[in-house]
Amino acid sequence: LFSKVEELPRDPILGLTEAFVADKTPHRVNLGVGVYQDENGKVPLLACVKLAEEAMLAKAAPHTYVPIDGYAHYNAAVAKMVFAESCDLANVVTVQALGGTGALKLGAEMVKVATPNAKVWISDPSWENHRALFAAAGFAVETYPYYGADGELDFSGLIATLEKIPAGDVVLLHACCHNPTGLDLSQDQWRQIAKVVRARGLTPFLDTAYMGFAEGLETDAFSVRLFASDGGPLFVSFSFSKSLSLYGERVGALSVLTANPQERSRVLSQIKRIARITYSSPAGHGAAAAAAVLADPALRRQWDEELGAMRARIKKMRQLLADKLAERVPGRDFTYIVRQNGMFSYSRLTKPQAVLLREKYAVYALDSGRICVAALNEKNIDYVAESIAKVMVE
Ligand code: PMP
């Protein structure tokens, strides 16, 4: 039966982690991962989550099924947080999903129902899973320019391509903290994009996996709310994996802004069918904890503080890395590291430099040069800066 089954290549990021685990160099550093780590290199358990979980445990509720579309109070709380007053929530479908990936999958299948012949346009480069996920849902996936040859955002290339995309196609945009480049659009650039997208009748799909990591929850919601404020249509995938440090609990949501409550009801029925045949109903624990954090003013304040501390630590590491590299590689500008947002930085390391960094210095970055800034800390940053500087001048 399986004699003709082809072996697929390893996932490049997971493959890098496997190589890192096998590496016995004592000072090795893994900058390939996509998780936030604290100053001790540990994935944090947020206090707000711990308190919510303790209260849940004390209640000892049975583990019955969650509704197909998730907990209603969770969905309502997510919709309110993401959209605020930007649109009429009576027209928004929000469905609990298995993380941001699960939200993207529900969204991709819903797009397929609504507009099966559309193409899907993603940024060049984008999170690797975007292409694979939309291709698996049966779409032709194209790219629009994003990362310029000079290491900065290619905004004119982006707009010029959007202006040529046929009406009805889907444009996937990173709401904030672009993965992998860390290059974000300014509010003015978002306005220009929204204008072109709407004028050409394209369907925006905003992937929101890092809300709160650029400037804060409110500011980071700008792009989503901008697109929502003209009434849609709009798809938004959302993840709590990073912002509540709930990676393994798979807590996310898909929202779709429709034209009216009748449309909303039809779209919801379709998304429920997709969920039903894919996993029947989502997981309960993480979403219940997230909903409890959003519902309780004290826990919500605590979350704001903890999210703020994660954001501030990342920004501090960006500044330190840029300063330390500038000291070691005179005449070269590293301010781009500070201007980028979120967990990742396109470090401008070339592929041979990334390979050398790994093989000679045991510092693991992706071949693209992407590094996870959230994996840096006061203990490893000197070694990382020293090693990057060496491979850049070698
Ligand atoms: N979108 C982007 C841009 C991401 O970087 C990630 C996670 N790395 C996701 C979606 C998926 O999020 P989750 O882990 O919650 O499935």
TrEMBL record:
Keywords: Aminotransferase, Pyridoxal phosphate, Transferase. Homodimer. InterPro entries: Aminotransferase_I/II_large (IPR004839), Asp_trans (IPR000796), NHTrfase_class1_PyrdxlP-BS (IPR004838), PyrdxlP-dep_Trfase (IPR015424), PyrdxlP-dep_Trfase_major (IPR015421), PyrdxlP-dep_Trfase_small (IPR015422). CDD domains: AAT_like. GO terms for cellular component: cytosol. Residues 28-388 form the Aminotransferase class I/classII large domain. SUPFAM superfamilies: PLP-dependent transferases. It comes from the Bacteria. This is Aminotransferase. Its cofactor is pyridoxal 5'-phosphate. Belongs to the class-I pyridoxal-phosphate-dependent aminotransferase family. GO terms for molecular function: identical protein binding; L-tyrosine-2-oxoglutarate transaminase activity; pyridoxal phosphate binding.
